[in-house]
Specification:
Elements (H helix, E strand, L loop, with lengths): L1 H21 L3 H14 L4 H13 L3 H13 L5 H13 L3 H14 L4 H14 L2 H14 L4 H17 L1 H21 L6 H13 L3 H9 L12 H12 L3 H14 L4 H24 L6 H21 L8 H17 L11 H12 L5 H6 L7 H15 L14 H16 L8 H18 L15 H18 L2 H17 L4 H13 L6 H7 L6 H4 L2 H4 L8 H32 L2 H15 L2 H17 L4 H9 L31 H4 L1 H36 L17 H18 L20 H6 L2 H21 L9 H10 L10 E4 L2 E4 L3 H39 L9 H27 L21 H37 L4
Antiparallel strand pairs: 1-2
Organism: Biomphalaria glabrata (Bloodfluke planorb)
Pfam families: NatB_MDM20
Family: Belongs to the MDM20/NAA25 family.
């Protein structure tokens, strides 16, 4: 009773601290903790909660020091351990959680809760060997609890995944033996345990025994959720080539679910394997008279089964599965080159026409028919087009426009148009024909809006694809003529359409792409936010804006976007481990490896590494107006330049969704696979260049700290081997130059499909321009100053490093950019490359300024030493060493280049340059209704606002760099 009373008192005293932490009042939590500690100095949990409050207030040094002291005392109280775990989770020090519980388990080896927490700590770290050891400790402690035993088995299986060679010879046989022991002792209790046994057998490809398990008494443990038992049985039978059994299983499943397309594919695969086996038997036994009939019997049986399913739907609900199965049947016969003389089958053209008649009023019809267009010859394709044209009932012979009567007819016509484009018919149109068809589709779009008057704001208008097709035709004309009139016209139509269909992400996606093509990013954040990009979409769809936001000078928005993207990946690293732990707790062993693979894909995501690198480079540009703030920003980054290895490009995963945007072009024009591979290589090269540049800057800052006698903060303190920042800086500078050499093939920007192609990077600008040369020239200055800091001013050779920096900086000043507009074939058009070139120069000037700050730091120390000597030796009238004057002159020269860039950026501002954006009005477009003229004015307002914002933010950055340079004067 006394012990329990003591615990109750502690809980009562700690409650106010917990309440303050839950409410986010960390300052009050510290005060409450101090009150408790005055009354009870040895209450460790109160100290931990105080440390947690300190960490949340950003006082990491104090909080970490207090935690370290408590950690060394090896606490065992449950409350203290839980509180310390929270602290380590928030600081992402997961290894210390394992260390904490490991020490506690040694003091209390029979404490089940501590051992369970220790196991989960190892799960979080992915330490499978320690998982196995801890699980066996738990099993010995509680031998009647099956889950602990199977935690150990699953830990062994994960080691098999980790090392495939040892997995086959050691880990998997051991795991199988352990489960067999429980089976023989009749200790199996749950379905999850049988699932784990099947996983082990399947990994060993022991299909015979897996089949025996499913069909034996152990199979009774398995539930039958969504026919999982039957499909698993069919999969195992297919591995054993029991195709008659497989076909029988899927035939039964199709009787219950005749619209399941996956079942149809598996069923047909099984039957065609039986057919091929029959042909093999016929060749091996040519005397047999039954081989040929048996071969055709399989095909006839399958054809009859499909026809029966179609017949059964004649007076009921029409389902696509059986009709598609009939077309797939013809396709497989064609692919496998089978003779079907005894089978009365329809041609592919007839089947596709019939399918269009039945399901043309469903939007999915396009994707269904597209799969089978390669079955038709050119003449048959024309016949199919003519059939669909007449079947829609909206194409007149005299050219008059017939509008759809209802949504079904409208959808059917859209499917016809989409398939026509996929067949390449639109690419054969002349410019005038394409423009005329585009105008017709716009009229059909506006007429079709009447069917969507009752739709909710979250619904998409039925006729929106008419608009998208019209815009694609305008973009075709733009690609051929290079006349921006057609692109801006497309943007105006899209801006109009988004008013009637506010939730259509396809319109927003295309608007983002087209605005960025013309160097306008201002409208994109609202469009991007309107798509509600959340969670995993930050990885798959973040590329939509990530390559353009900095390129077009929207630095503030870039910081917000990159922070959001990186936050998702950081949160995922925390949450993924929670999912893994839940899988162990609830026995979902089949999901554990999937979660691990998913976590690895996100950890190695191209988007993650790109966003985090760009975010840190942006911080060095935006958050620095003097060298002290640069050092603070560098020290706060979770990067260790002294110990980090070069990024391994071979491990990167391309998780981008490049097929989200609708495009009905022929596959040979989309070049989806080729463009994806080319883009991935470009993205990897760009990432390596930026990663190396980041490390060059951070190492340069470290060299400055070393010259000032300050210990290196941003490094791995546990690494016993002391590395020289200057030596590594030289190496990274060589890596940077090598990277540029390897990217010579990217001197011209890659151009991809305008609708569905990936976005290009800024690699071409950095490789072909003077940017890298300018940065490396300052590294020579840093080396020179460092050598002086070691040898002194007495040995000060006359070098030309300052002149090289001056010359390379002057090359960053853009001579070709005269303003926002350029002449193109006698027309004034927006210069879409002006901003990109200017931003690249501004970035390079920022990097040069940071590294000149390193030189200034070293030279100021040398000048102070010289002044001390000069004051002591008053009789001597030595003049100031020339190096100081040369450096000051260099700062003035760089400052002058910065002012020139500022002037260029100001000239891009339409207001500053007195440019009337409305003068760019599309005179080629005839005046139509008032609403279109308003939309056009809205577009130009957005363009003007965007360029103004870009110009303003660029000028702001240059202003900060101007101030930065002024602080570097000696």
């Amino acid at each position: 009773m006394a012990s329990r009373s003591h615990v109750d008192i502690n809980e009562r005293r700690l409650r106010p601290i917990y309440d303050c932490l839950d409410n986010g009042n960390n300052k009050k939590a510290i005060q409450e903790a101090d009150k408790v500690l005055k009354k009870q100095k040895d209450l460790t949990c109160a100290k931990v909660l105080k440390a947690l409050a300190l960490l949340r207030m950003g006082r990491h040094a104090e909080g970490s020091s207090l935690l370290s002291t408590i950690h060394q005392s090896e606490p065992t109280e449950e409350q203290t351990l839980n509180a310390m775990s929270i602290c380590y989770k928030e600081t992402q020090q997961y290894d210390k959680i394992a260390s904490l519980y490991d020490a506690a388990s040694k003091q209390q080896p029979n404490n089940e809760d501590i051992l369970s927490c220790l196991f989960m700590a190892h799960v979080r770290l992915g330490n499978y060997q320690q998982q196995q050891r801890t699980a066996m400790q738990l099993h010995k402690l509680r031998p009647k609890k099956n889950p602990y035993y199977f935690w150990a088995v699953m830990s062994i299986v994960m080691q098999a995944y980790q090392n495939e060679q040892l997995g086959k010879t050691m880990f998997l046989p051991l795991a199988e033996k352990m489960i067999k022991k429980y089976i023989q002792e009749d200790k199996i209790e749950a379905e999850a345990e049988i699932h784990l046994y099947l996983i082990i057998l399947e990994l060993q490809q022991n299909w015979t025994e897996a089949l025996q398990v499913l069909e034996g008494p152990l199979g009774a443990f398995l539930g039958n959720e969504l026919h999982s038992k039957e499909t698993r049985l069919a999969t195992i039978c297919s591995k054993l080539s029991k195709w008659d059994r497989v076909s029988s299983i899927y035939k039964q499943l199709l009787d219950q679910m005749p619209d399941n397309w996956d079942f149809w594919l598996k069923y047909q695969e099984a039957v065609f394997h039986l057919v091929e086996d029959s042909y093999t038997d016929m060749k091996q036994e040519p005397s047999s008279d039954d081989s040929t009939p048996n071969t055709h019997a399989h095909l006839e049986a399958m054809q009859k089964f499909i026809e029966d399913k179609i017949q059964s739907m004649q007076n009921g609900v029409m389902m696509r599965g059986p009709y598609l199965a009939e077309i797939e049947f013809v396709k497989q016969i064609s692919i496998r080159k089978l003779t079907t003389t005894s089978i009365n089958q329809k041609s592919a053209l007839e089947l596709l026409q019939e399918y269009f008649q039945h399901f043309g009023n469903k939007s999915s019809c396009y994707n269904d028919i597209k799969l089978y267009l390669d079955l038709l010859q050119a003449q048959e394709l024309d016949q199919l087009v003519e059939f669909m044209k007449s079947d829609t009932g909206l194409e007149s012979s005299d050219g008059s426009l017939i509008y759809a009567r209802d949504v079904n007819q409208l959808t059917k016509h859209l499917v016809y148009l989409q398939l026509t484009r996929t067949m390449g018919k639109h690419s054969l149109l002349s410019i005038q024909e394409a423009l005329a068809l585009s105008q017709e589709l716009l009229l059909r779009y506006r007429d079709g809006l009447q069917f969507g008057k009752e739709l909710l704001p979250t619904d998409i208008q039925y006729s929106d694809n008419y608009l998208l097709l019209a815009v694609h035709l305008l973009l075709d004309v733009w690609s051929k003529t290079k006349d921006d009139v057609h692109l801006w016209r497309a943007i105006v139509h899209l801006e109009l359409a988004i008013r009637d269909s506010v939730s259509n992400y396809q319109i927003k996606l295309l608007l983002i792409r087209l605005y960025c093509r013309k160097g306008v990013f201002g409208p994109c954040p609202a469009l991007y936010d309107g798509m509600e990009i959340k969670h995993i979409m930050n990885d798959t769809l973040g590329h939509i804006v990530s390559n353009d936001v900095i390129r077009l000078g929207h630095f503030m928005e870039a910081g917000t976007m990159y922070a959001t993207m990186v936050r998702f990946f950081v949160v995922n690293q925390k949450e993924a481990s929670e999912h893994l732990m839940s899988s162990y707790k609830f026995g979902s062993f089949g999901r554990i490896h999937e979660f691990v693979q998913f976590q690895e894909r996100l950890d190695n995501s191209l988007q993650y590494h790109t966003a985090s690198t760009e975010k840190m480079l942006l911080e060095l540009i935006m958050q620095t107006d003097r060298h002290e703030s640069t050092e603070a920003a560098a020290d706060g980054m979770n990067v260790h330049p002294l110990t980090d290895k070069t990024i391994d490009l071979s491990k990167l995963c391309d998780n981008r969704d490049l097929t989200l945007a609708l495009a009905w072009d022929p596959p040979e024009l989309l070049c989806a696979t080729e463009n994806r591979q080319k883009s991935f290589e470009e993205e990897k090269s760009w990432l390596l260049l930026r990663w190396t540049l980041l490390h060059v800057l951070l190492l340069a800052v470290m060299v400055g700290q070393e010259m000032a006698g300050v210990g290196v903060v941003n490094g791995n303190e546990e690494n016993t081997e002391k590395k020289s920042p200057l030596k590594l800086l030289r190496q990274r500078a060589k890596d940077l130059q090598n990277c540029v050499q390897q990217c010579q093939g990217h001197k011209q920007p890659n151009q991809y499909h305008v609708v569905q192609g990936p976005s290009r990077t800024r690699l071409a600008e950095f490789v072909s321009g003077p940017h890298i040369t300018a940065v490396t020239s300052v590294i020579d200055c840093i080396e020179y100053v460092y050598s002086l800091s070691q040898s002194g001013l007495d040995e000060c050779p006359d070098v030309k490093v300052w002149a090289l920096v001056k010359d390379s900086t002057q090359k960053l000043v853009l001579k070709d950019v005269q303003g926002l507009l350029k002449d193109c074939d006698g027309k004034r058009q927006l210069d879409s490359l002006a901003l990109e070139q200017l931003v690249a120069s501004v970035e390079s000037v920022s990097y040069i300024t940071i590294m000149l700050g390193v030189c200034s730091k070293g030279l100021k120390i040398l000048k102070n030493d010289w002044l001390k000597k000069f004051k002591k030796n008053k009789a001597s009238h030595n003049s100031q060493p020339e190096i100081f004057d040369k450096f000051n002159q260099l700062i003035l020269d760089v400052s002058a280049s910065t002012k020139e860039l500022h002037q260029i950026a100001s000239c891009l501002d339409p207001v500053f340059s007195s440019l009337d954006i409305a003068s760019l009005r599309l005179a080629d477009i005839p005046d139509e209704e008032q609403i279109q003229r308003e939309a056009e004015r809205l577009v130009w307002t957005k363009v003007e606002s965007s360029v103004q914002q870009s110009s303003g933010e660029i000028c702001e950055v240059l202003h900060h760099k101007q101030f930065y340079l002024n602080t570097l004067m000696l």
